[in-house]
Amino acid sequence: MKKILFQDTSFRDGFQSVFGARVLTEDFIPAVEAAAHAGITHFEAGGGARFQSLFLYCGESAFDMMDKFREAVGPDANLQTLARGINVVALSQQPKDMIDLHAKMFKKHGMSHIRNFDALNDVRNLEYSGECITNAGLHHQVVITMMELPPGCSGAHDVDFYIDRLKKILDSGLPFDSICFKDASGTSNPEKVHKTFKAARKLVGDDVILWMHTHETAAQGVHQYMGAIHGGCDGICVARAPVSGGTAQPDLISMWNALKDTEYTLDIDVAKILEANAVFKEAMSEYYFPPEALKVSSEVLLSPMPGGALTANTMMMRDTGTLKLYPKVIEAMSECVAKGGFGTSVTPVSQFYFQQAFANVTQGPWKKMTDGYGQMVLGYFGRTPVEPDPEIVKIASEQLGKPKFDGNPVDILDPGIPKAKEILEKEGLPVTDENIFIVGALATAGGNKGLDFLKGDFTVNVRKNVEAEQAKAPAASKSPGPENFVVTVNGSDYNVTVKEGTSEVQSVSETSKPKNAPSAPTGGSTEVIAGVPGNVLRLVVGVGDKVKENEPLVVLEAMKMETPVASPCDGEVASIEINQGDVVEAGDILMTINPS
Asked: Can you give the pTM of this predicted structure?
C-alpha cells in the first residue's frame, strides 16, 4: 500500500483562506505544538500573504513568527513557505538581489522548503528564483499553476497546456527537488487533474516527487486529489479543523477516509489528530469566521477566485464598507479573466483580476485600468499564456502611459538592497538583512508599509468575536456588524450606532468637524465628490490651500488600490468634510472648492 505524503497547510493557507491571513502568533503556537505531538512532520509555515499580513495587520514580524514556529516543531520537521517567482513574498516584482536575499533570510529563520510558482506560468520567472532557493540549501518545489477557464474560453489551462509548461521547466535546466500542480481556486475539473498527473508521471518517470495543491471552495478538492493520486501523485496539501474545507484545503481526516479500501493511505493516528484539532479549535475560538469562508461557492467555477484571496478580499471589503458589492465584482471578474490572457487566478494575478473587476463595477467597465492588471496585459509581469485582448492592451497602454513589453521582467528592475539601505540609514534604523528585506518587499506606490512597521506606525486589525459578532447572513446579502446613521436634532448632527438586526442603540456621539473646516460650504463653492468607495488614506491639501484643476486633493484606498481624487477646478479649498481613516461611499462629499 502506497503512503501518500501530506503537508498540513492549516497555519498558512488555512489562515489566509479563512481569516485573510490575520492571525496573531501567540494565539496559534500551542496548536502547532499539538500538531507536532500528533505526529505531523510537514507544515506550511509562512510565505504568501502570511508574510505581508503580519506586518500590515498583526503588528508582528514574519521573521519572528517563523523562528517561533521552528522552535515549536523542533529541528527535524519540514517547514515550507510559499513564494511567487520574481515577486517572492513581496507586493511587487523584486530585483535579483532581493530575490536572493529572500531565500537566504527564509533559510536563516528556520524554513527548509520553498514552493515557488508563477501565476503566468512563465518559466523565465522561476529560473533565477529557483537558483537562489537551491543555492541557499532549501528544497525547491517548482510549480505549475492550474484553474478552470470561464465558459467559452479556450487556448490554455488544459492537459496539453500543463504538460507543455512541464516540458519547458525540464528543458530550462532550472534546479528543482519536486514538482507541484497548484490550483489556488479549486476549480480544475477532476478528470483534467487525473489526466494531467498521468501524463506528467509518464514524462518525468517514477523518481520525481509530484504534489497536488487545491482548495475546497467549489467542493471539488477531494475529487481532484483522488484523481491526482490515481494518476501518480505522491503528496497532497490538507488542512485541519477548524480551518479545513470551505475556502481552505480539504480536511486531513476526510482525505484519510476517502482513501479507505484503495491501494493508498495517509499515515496518521486519527485519535491523536482529533486531540490536536481540539487544541486548535480552542486556540481559534475567539476569531471571527467569515461565513463566505465556510460554504461552497460554486460561482467561482465561472470566475475562478482563489480561496486564499476570497476572504482576504472580503475582509478588505468589510474594512471599506463595500462588502455589498462582492456579488457584482465576482461576476465582473469573469470578463477580466477572459480578456486578460488567462494568467492563473492566484496571487498576484487573482488580485489583479479582482481589483480590475472592482474598478469596473464602481467606475464603469474599463474606465480605470488598474495598475496591476494593466501592467500584466502589457507584459511587465511576464508573458501571459495567450495574448490579451488587443483593445484591453490599447486601453492599458494609453491609461498607464506605457508601451507593450516582451522582455524579461527581472532584467529591467534596479537593485533593491542599496535603496533599502539608504531608507534605513536616513530614518536612523538598524541596517540588518531582515530590515532591508522588510523595507524592500513592502514598498508600494503610496508609501512603504515595511518602513511604517519598523517605525511603529501601524494598526493591529485582527477580527475576533469579542469585537465583531459572527454574521447571521451570507456575505452576498449585507455587510456584518453594527449599522451607522447620522441623526439631526435641533440643527446638530449625531452619529448613532445601532446593533445589527435590532433597534438597540450602541452609541451616540456628536459628529466632528475636521479642523479648520467651516460649518458649511460657502456660497458658489464646487463640491468634490468621491467617485469610488474606500478608506481616506491621505489628505494632500488643507483648508485655505490654493489648488489647480486636476491637482490631487485626497487619496482613497480600497482593495489595495490607491485612487487619487483630483480638483475639478482652479480655486481655494473652502472645507474638508472627511478625516484621514474615514470610510466613504461613492457620491460622498469630500471637500468643497471656491473656484477662482
From this structure: 0.82
